[in-house]
Amino acid sequence: MTTTAASTSATNASTTSATTATTENVTARSARARAWPILLLAGAFEIAYALAVGGSEGFTVLSWSLIAVVFFLLTLFSLSLALRTIDVGIGYAVWAGIGAVGAALLGPVFFDETLTPVKVLWLTLIIGGVVWLKLSDRPQQPQTEQSAHQQ
Hints:
With 151 residues, the protein is mostly helical. Helix 1 runs antiparallel to helix 2. The two termini are 32 Å apart. The protein has helices at 2-55, 62-82, 88-110, 117-136, 143-150.
């Protein structure tokens, strides 16, 4: 009888451990899924910040300067939320890439800037890099989970 009780106890502990691991994986995936839209929002705020800094003319135009400060705080706050889950190197590179591409594409719309075909080529390369960074951020499955999927 004690052998059966010990076996049942071991099975229950194993099941509880597997359930806890599965719950943690789902929670981690959910957090990661929420972090990427927040990172994209941080990138949008970064674009607005860069454009506002350009409009502030060296922080000599008060209205643009105040807008720049607001978007600076918003972009840093959003970035910090996203970096709770996303690796710093990946998150920062994506954030900076979004800001750089967005500012370069919108600079001609708001300011007297040019956008040449060569600039578009290199901006496309940045966008491709950002996409590949996102794709490389898929978490590795633990060995036990990989084994279960293979069976």
